[in-house]
Design goal:
Layout (H helix, E strand, L loop, with lengths): L1 H19 L7 E5 L3 H14 L4 E6 L9 E4 L2 E4 L5 E2 L3 H10 L3 E2 L5 E5 L4 E4 L8 H8 L2 H16 L1 H7 L7 H18 L2 H7 L4 H16 L7 H9 L5 E4 L5 H9 L3 E4 L1 E10 L2 E10 L2 E7 L1 E4 L13 E3 L12 E13 L14 E6 L8 E4 L18 E7 L5 H7 E16 L11 E3 L2 E3 L10 H19 L11 H7 L2
Parallel strand pairs: 1-2, 1-14, 2-10, 7-17, 11-15, 14-22
Antiparallel strand pairs: 3-4, 5-9, 6-9, 7-8, 11-12, 12-13, 16-19, 16-20, 17-18, 18-19, 21-22
Helix pairs in contact: 2-11, 2-13, 3-11, 5-10, 8-10
The structure holds flavin-adenine dinucleotide and 2-acetamido-2-deoxy-beta-D-glucopyranose (NAG) (5 copies).
């Protein structure tokens, strides 16, 4: 009893202190989108503002967004983002928090197909296999590795800054604090240009680097160096995914925060004000019709498209108007094909002798980017990957839906084809400036960070940044926003 009383007393002083400064916590927060960005930001916002804040998460499609599964022959398979780098620290935390498990990696070899023949075959289990690469490309691949590692090492500083509560109001400020002008320049210069400069050969770029970029982004070595380096880091082995499906992280985080998930399409955000503070009216369409509600904080956790014609989400009542919505996205089609691979197409007339689980492609005019013999999201202890002569589930990624003739080229025969069409990644080069997270006082755009690099972990980093930005702005803690020389500051802080 005594302890409870003490706790209550302590709590009421805290509340009083907050009230004295006019600093009541926000009443209601809206999050638009329930992909990893929206689910993670709901979780982080609640961590910072406490459990009393009402959290409404609007989702027009399904929870998970680009984390999704498709059922084939009674098993579920990833149809969106498939795997994550081992250093995805926020994602690793979510897994621990939610009691989810890593999915066991089933060993399989990769090769790169150049149209007429395989340009690179993996001898061991990961793509950048040392000996082979050394043999083919000399010192170039070591230089590539050092280049990628340097970017990753600097990027990892973000976790330290975030642990100390620092936030950034724009993508440029964030990148600058991690990698100075070098990171900013890497968003403007191409992968090819940057790699040639550090001594990687054109042949290595054409054969290997562009194949990896096509596989992860569906784009070429002309894409910006920063996003390219982050995706090349993913080609170096040690990938993981979530047992039961990657989207379980999103539904798990939303359940944990007890967020109110509303199945609706948000159509507009309108600015009002209450006692000198901004108040946002979020309008949305449900099956029952049109509705709207007021919020202290709004986070848009979805790409904001180019123009009004492609989107129904508009911003009203803001001066100056919010119109920095340039840039478009790269379509990618994922086809899950249950059938028999045509290994002849890759130069293996006898399917039993086809040793690969993954085929990447170089920039030859290919109708597909990657082809993978995939495992279901739940795998039992005695699971083994299907042999190439058996009917298996293959995941084909292509820029456009596969034609019947193309399916007939890749497969001897098949039972079923199911597809997911995504606006997968920003089409880098379709916008010239780096966007801001802050659209207005307490209106944020989380997906802005996708214009630096697009991955699940990067969106989790963006979610933590936006939650901290909202929190620091709410309590006017301006020393924690857009600070310079953070490496030095976090070293001297305890
Ligand atoms: C085929 C494919 C493969 C990929 N592979 C990988 C990979 O291996 N590793 C990796 O790390 N990343 C990968 N990615 C990228 C990764 O999936 C994305 O970076 C990440 O999932 C984006 O999360 P998000 O929450 O920001 O956006 P999304 O997941 O797109 O979520 C946005 C959500 O907002 C909803 N929404 C949009 N507008 C509205 C509205 N007006 N009202 C209500 N709701 C709305 C949408 O329905 C959607 O659910 C891949 C992506 C694709 C498509
Ligand atoms: C980035 O580009 C600017 C302008 O071109 C240049 O001054 C600066 O030195 C570059 N930074 C690095 C690290 O290359
Ligand atoms: C798949 O894995 C998830 C997470 O471990 C579990 O909740 C689910 O029951 C499993 N499904 C099957 C069919 O084993
Ligand atoms: C979008 O629509 C609003 C009004 O609905 C208009 O004022 C604005 O100019 C439009 N923007 C573009 C890019 O078309
Ligand atoms: C916008 O709204 C109209 C009518 O409500 C709908 O037909 C259209 O598909 C919507 N566009 C998008 C991109 O959601
Ligand atoms: C398989 O690939 C070979 C070689 O490219 C091609 O000739 C054949 O038409 C393809 N399809 C089938 C069903 O064998």
């Amino acid at each position: 009893m005594a302890r409870a009383a003490l706790l209550l007393a302590a709590l009421s002083t805290l509340v009083a202190a907050a009230a004295a400064g006019g600093d009541a916590p926000p009443g209601k927060i809206a999050v638009v989108g329930a992909g990893i960005g929206g689910s993670a930001v709901a979780h982080f916002l609640q961590q910072h503002f406490g459990p009393r804040v009402q959290m409404d998460v609007f989702e027009k499609g399904t929870v998970g967004g680009r984390l999704a599964t498709i059922s084939v022959n009674k098993q579920h398979y990833e149809s969106g983002a498939a795997s994550f780098h081992s250093l995805s620290l926020h994602m690793q935390d979510f897994l621990r928090l939610l009691g989810l498990r890593h999915r066991r990696e089933v060993v399989g070899r990769s090769a790169i197909f150049g149209g007429a023949h395989l340009v690179l075959e993996e001898t061991d289990w990961y793509l950048l296999n040392l000996f082979r690469l050394w043999w083919h490309y000399g010192i170039g691949f070591l230089r590539l590795q050092m280049w990628v590692e340097e970017v990753m090492e600097k990027f990892m500083r973000i976790y330290k800054y975030q642990a100390h509560g620092y936030a950034f109001s724009g993508v440029e400020e964030l990148l600058r604090s991690l990698g100075d002008t070098a990171f900013i320049n890497m968003t403007q210069r191409s992968v090819a240009e940057s790699l040639l400069q550090v001594g990687v050969t054109q042949r290595f770029i054409d054969d290997v680097v562009s194949a990896v970029l096509r596989a992860s982004y569906g784009q070429s070595a002309a894409m910006p160096a920063f996003a390219g380096a982050m995706s090349l880091a993913g080609a170096q082995g040690n990938l993981w995914s979530v047992e039961g499906g990657n989207k379980l992280v999103c539904s798990g985080l939303l359940r944990l925060t007890k967020a109110n998930v509303i199945h609706a399409t948000v159509t507009s955000v309108t600015l009002h004000s209450k006692e000198g503070k901004a108040l946002y009216e979020v309008s949305y369409e449900t099956e029952q019709g049109h509705n709207s509600d007021f919020y202290d904080i709004v986070v848009i956790a979805s790409p904001l498209p180019l123009d009004n014609s492609s989107s129904n989400l508009t911003f009203q009542g803001f001066t100056p108007p919010i119109d920095d919505l340039q840039g478009s996205y790269q379509p990618t089609v994922v086809s899950l094909v249950h059938g028999y691979l045509n290994s002849s197409y890759f130069g293996f007339p006898d399917p039993k002798l086809f040793p690969f689980a993954s085929i990447l492609t170089t920039d030859f005019p290919s109708f597909f980017n990657t082809l993978d013999n995939i495992c279901p999201v739940n795998i039992s202890a005695n699971f083994r990957r299907k042999q190439p002569q058996e009917a298996a589930v293959w995941r084909v990624q292509s820029p456009k839906p596969l034609l019947r003739t193309e399916l007939k080229t890749l497969f001897r025969s098949y039972y079923s084809v199911q597809t997911a069409e995504w606006q997968a990644h920003p089409l880098y080069g379709s916008r010239r400036t780096l966007p801001s997270f802050a659209l207005h006082d307490q209106l944020f755009h989380l997906s802005a960070l996708e214009w630096a690099a697009s991955s699940v972990e990067v969106m989790a980093v963006a979610a933590k940044n936006v939650a901290l930005l909202a929190y620091n702005r709410w309590y006017q803690d301006l020393d924690k926003i857009d600070q310079k020389d953070l490496m030095h500051k976090v070293k001297t802080e305890l």
